[in-house]
Amino acid sequence: MKRALGVCYYPEHWPQEMWAEDARRMVDAGLSWVRIAEFAWSRMEPEPGRLELDWLDQAIDTLGSAGLKIVFGTPTATPPRWMIDRHPDMLAVDANGTPRKFGSRRHYCFSHKGYQEECARIVEVLARRYGANPHIAAWQTDNEYGCHETVLSYSKAAHEGFRNWCAQQYQSVDALNRAWGNVFWSMELASFEELELPNQTVTEANPAHRMAFRRFASSEVVRFNRLQCRILRQHSRAPLLHNYMGQSTSFDHFECGQDLDIASWDSYPLGFLINRTDYDDDHKKRYLRQGDPDFQAFHHDLYRAVGRGRWWVMEQQPGPVNWAQWNVAPLPGMARLWAWEAFAHGAEVVSYFRWRQAPFAQEQMHAGLLRPDSAAAPALGEAAQVAAELAEMPDAGTAQAKVAIVFDYPSVWAWEVQPQGQDFSGFKLLFDMYRGLRALGQDIDILPPDASDLSAYELVVIPGLFTLSDGLRAALAAYKGYVLHGPRSGVRNKDFCIPAGLGPDLPGVTATLARSESLPPFAPMKLAAPGNFVKWFDHLEADPQQVAEATADGQPALLRAGNVYCLAGWPDPEACQRILKNLLAEAGLEAAEMPEGLRQRSTQSHRFFFNYADGPIEWQGRSIPAAGVYWQSLADDRSGSANA
Ligand code: GAL
Prior knowledge:
The protein is α/β, with parallel strands linked by helices. The chain contains 18 helices and 24 strands. The strands form five sheets. Strands 1-2-3-4-5-6-7-8 form an eight-stranded parallel β-barrel, surrounded by five helices. The chain has a seven-stranded mixed beta sheet with strand order 10-9-11-12-18-17-16. β20 (598-602) and β21 form a beta hairpin. α6 (156-170) packs across α8, α8 (207-235) packs antiparallel against α15 (409-417) and α13 (334-344) runs parallel beside α14 (378-392). The longest helix is centred in the middle third of the chain and has 29 residues, at 207-235.
C-alpha cells in the first residue's frame, strides 16, 4: 500500500467555478485523496424526498478527473432541519432530560428507529448512485461518532432499547436483580418494564446499572454503523472507514471497527494538549505549539489495532483550530512532523483538515491549507514537502513491536462509573504507562482485550483491566514472556461485583486484594525505592517471597511470581520509569532513555526521530532542530541521512 496525503474538501461551500482550480492545486501540492460530502445532506435532499445530486456528480467528476481519489462521507451526522419536523423525538436527550436542539450537528439519538430508517434510505441512494463510480475509492460512515458527547442519550427510544437489551442479556428480571445486587436499597424490579435509565436518580445509581447502560449505548453505535456498512457493501467494493476522535472512549471502537476495513482518526495535537485538564501549565507551555509528544503516537497505535493493521489520519490539524480553550499556531514544521509520525506508525494516508478556511459559520477561525482568500496558508508548503519526501521513501510498514499494552473501552467506562478517587481515569493510567515505555524508546502495539495470541511480545502491560475475557485469560496462560498487571486489574466480574475470592483475578497472581484506597494529590505514597504511588493503592496480601518492591512503610508495592508482575498502585513518572526499565531489562529488551521531547519509532526499514521540544536536540551524534524529523536506515544504524 502506497502511503499518501489527502485533504478534506467541501465543494458545497464554494462556487462551482472554483472546483477545478482547487483540484488542480491539490494535485500540484502532491495530495492524492480528497474527502467530501459528510455534512452535505441539506444540499443533497433540500426537502424530504427531493434529491438534488447533480452538483455532487459534477464535484466527483471534477475532483476525480483531476486525478484525486475520493472518500465519500455519508451525511448522517447532520440531519437537515426538515428531519426534526418529521421525527421530533429523534433528538438525543441529555442526562437532565433536556433534548439537544437543532443548529449544529450530531443532533440525533442512535436508538431512534425512524432516524435509522432515514439514514438507511439516504445511504442507499448514495451507494446506488456512486457505489461503482471509479473515482470513489473509499467510504466514510457518518462523522466522529461520539463527538460532542452524543453517545449517551436518555430518550424514550434509548429507554426502550435499553429494556430490550437487558431482557436479552439477562433473560429474566430475577437474573438481573441478582447480577446487579438490586436487593441493596430495595431496588429490586418485578419486570423489565420497570427498568429505568440510570439518570436523575436522587443519589448515584447502581454501578452495575450504569455499566450496563454504557455497554448498551456502545452497542447502539456499533449497530448504527453496521446498518450503513451493510448497505454500502451491497453496492460498492471500496473500503469502508470511520473517522474516530482522540481520547474518545464512549463506545467500543474495537467492536465498531469489526464492520469496517480501515480505522481512521482526527488528529488535532494542539487542541488536545490545551483541552486536557490533567496536564499542568508547565507541560502545556513546553509543548504549546507542538502538542504532547506521546498523545498522537498513542492514538496511531490504538487505531492501528482498531483497524486490524489498516489505518489513516482522516483529519490532520494544519494551523490554529477554533474549539480549544486557547488556539495557537503550530511551530513551523509541525504540520510535516505530525504527518511523518503517522507514517512511521503505519498510516496509509494522512489527510489534512481542511482545504480552505471557511469565512462563515462555526469554524471560520479554523485554519486550512489555504486562507479564505485562497492564498496558501503555511501548512500547504509543509504538506507539499511531505509529498515530495514520500516519493523518495521506500514503502516499508511499521515495525513489529516487542512491547504491548492491552486497552479496553469497558474498563474506561467502569472507572468512570466508579472512580473512587476524583482523579482516577482508566485512560490516564494506561496512557501514563504508554508514555513511560515511549520515554524508554520502545515501539508499542496496543492490543484489544480479547487478544488471543501474545507470542510476538516480550512484555505485555495490562493496567486497570477491570475484568479479563476468557480469551485473554487463555492467551496469558500460554504466554511465555513478561506481564505487568495492575493496579485495578482483574478486580470485578462483568456485572460490576467484587469476585468471590476478592481478586485480583489474574492468571499467575495468587495475592488477595484486602482493600483499596484512593490517594489525594497532596498525599502520594512513598515507595522504598525512588518514586511514589499516586491516586491509587491496593492492599495486596501476598506470600512475602513474592514481594519484589515495597512501599516506604513496608507494604507490598510490586509482586512477582515467575514472569508475572502485579503493581499495587499507580506509579508516578519516576517509579513508572524505574519499574518499566527493570522489566525491559529482564525481558531482554534494550531501553533507550530519550531526552525530554524526543521520541522514536521504527518502520521495517528506518528509524524515525521526532523532536517535540521547542528547541534543537543533540542526541547520540544526531542533531535535530525543533519540530524536526530525522530518519536513518536500519541497515546502517550509524549513517543518519539527516532530514531534520
Ligand atoms: C473534527 C470534525 C470536523 C471539524 C474539525 C475541526 O472534530 O470531524 O468536521 O469540525 O473537528 O477541528
